[in-house]
Amino acid sequence: MSGKPVLHYFNARGRMECIRWLLAAAGVEFEEKIIERPEDLEKLKKDGKLMFEQVPMVEIDGMTLVQTRAILNYIATKYDLSGKDMKERALIDMYAEGIADLNEMIVQLVITPPDQKEAKISLIKDRTKNRYLPAFEKVLKSHGQDYLVGNRLSRVDIHLLELLLYVEEIDSSLLAPFPLVKALKSRLSSLPNVKKFLQPGSQRKPPTDEKALEEARKVFKF
Amino acid sequence: MAGKPVLHYFDGRGRMEPVRWLLAAAGVEFEEKFLKTRDDLGRLRNDGSLVFQQVPMVEIDGMKLVQTRAILNYIASKYNLYGKDMKERALIDMYAEGIADLDEIVLHQPYVPREEKEANLAKIKDKARNRYFPAYEKVLKSHGQDYLVGNRLSRADVYLVELLYHVEELDPSVLANFPLLKALRTRVSNLPTVKKFLQPGSQRKPYEDEKRVESVMKIFS
After folding, report:
1. DSSP letter string over B21-46?
2. Which of B53, B70, B94 sits opposite A93 (nearest CB)?
3. Model ipTM value
4. Residue-wise over A54-80: b if at least 16 C-beta within 10 A, else e?
5. What local confidence, expressed as pLDDT, does residue A209 receive?
6. Is B121 exposed, middle or buried (0-12, 13-18, 19+ CB in 10 A)?
7. In the predicted model, is pLDDT for residue A174 greater than 80?
8. Torsion angle in degrees (nearest 10) through CA of B13, B16, B21, B24
9. Cβ of B51 and A63 within 8 Å?
10. Residue B98 to residue A52, Cβ atoms within 8 A
């Protein structure tokens, strides 16, 4: 046993990507067991490793954790990316949950039927430029610091960077009116661990194309 | 200023009810400012009180917190209902997130269009009976302790008990095959703070009837 966290998911971003990002940003090496066939998922269920019969699942420090937020909270706390006290954590949580709400819309886009996609994209763009990016621009403006909370890197900066990359994939002009958010994005992208993760060949996953979606449908039957 | 937390929401369960339960279980008195009209929501948005323009919002310890999980995490940490260390917290989070997934379907039931209500209810019953309640029964069986994590009360117990009541309202026989869940619910319900919250006249909210749903829809439409 290597002692490294082991991530169980299929070969796509989905609900595991934010975990890959956080581990990478924290400089933590991790292994991935890719679920390719229905039998792989059934085996995990039969072995009792999935509390709610669902992935993501991460084996870490002797635990078999499911639920993305439980996993992220543990990693953030362990690697000191969760603020210095309860109040900083409250801000981090608040901002991270906003990011999660917008990210959820983007994750759902992958499985949205083609006739509903345009409306969904429209809503995502609207929320991005009228609700979420203004909120984060305002936070950064309010304290003028280099990071969202506590003047140092925390999990929420990483979550935001990941989100901004997805927003850009949808429409690269969406970030234009938000100079402080853009500056944060540049700053974060230059951090050694993040820079490494952004290189080709890292464990970062590409956008989910039709082929990957079909593979996932076979295994997860949705 | 009372120093008490102030909850901003409409007069109904929605996404605020777990916050009410947790504060009540922790023995913390709180005030409520109810949104009654679209203008009330507009006012909160315009004065910059809502980071993402949404409620729930809770004023607590000089902060205006939005996002239910951020609020619950803070309350749980402050009142020592979040386990004794990182690993207990991981278990509590895992359990609470499962409950939240089920709750997401349950809290929508009053608001789902009439023609979809039956299907939504069937989904609640299926998930409760076949996925979630067996998982928590298994946890309690595995260690034989009185609470889900660490042999003492945590936010996970409070949230689970709330959901047991709410699902039972919709599916009266749902707890029939879950003796340990029933025992947990009884145990938690008899704690002085929870017992008080379960009495009529407390700040606990009833299931949203059609009239309530209609007035809520007007605020958010």
Report:
1. HHHHHTT---EEEE--SHHHHHHHHH
2. B70
3. 0.96
4. bbbbbbbeebbbbbbbbbbbbbbbbee
5. 84
6. middle
7. yes
8. -120
9. no
10. yes
How many angstroms separate the CA atoms of B146 and B160, rounded?
Answer: 13
- Distance (Å) from the alpha carbon of A131 to chain B's nearest alpha carbon: 6
Q: Which segments of chain A does DSSP mark as H helices, in order?
A: 17-25, 38-46, 68-78, 86-109, 114-127, 133-143, 155-170, 179-189, 192-198, 210-220
Q: pTM score > 0.90 for this model?
A: yes
Distances (CA, A) of B126 to A147, A217, B106, B157, B168: 44, 22, 12, 22, 13
Q: Are residues A53 and B131, on separate chains, in Cβ contact within 8 Å?
A: yes
Residues of chain B neighbouring A133 (CB-CB closer than 8 A) = none
Of A26-30, A127-131, A210-214, minimum mean pLDDT range: A210-214
The overall average pLDDT reported for chain B is 97
pLDDT for the residue A173: 97
Out of A89, A97, A131, closest to residue B53 by CB: A131
A79 touches chain B (CB under 8 A): no
Which domains are present in chain B? 6-79+197-220 (3.40.30.10), 86-190 (1.20.1050.10)
Partner residue opposite A135 with nearest CB, options B51, B65, B131: B51
Residue B26: both structure tokens together: 């922790």
The answer, yes or no, to whether residue A74 has pLDDT greater than 50, is yes
Confidence check: pLDDT of B190 > 70: yes
Question: Helix axis angle, A133-143 relative to A86-109, nearest 10°?
Answer: 150
Contact status, residue A137 vs residue A184, Cβ threshold 8 Å: no
Neighbour count for residue B12 (Cβ, 10 Å) = 21
Which is nearest to A19 in space by CA: A216, A219, A133, A155? Answer: A155
Q: Which amino acid is at A36?
A: E
Q: Please tell me the distance in Å from B62's CA to the nearest CA on chain A.
A: 10
Kindly state the average pLDDT of the residues A81-105.
98
A45 in contact with chain B, both atoms CB, cutoff 8 A: no
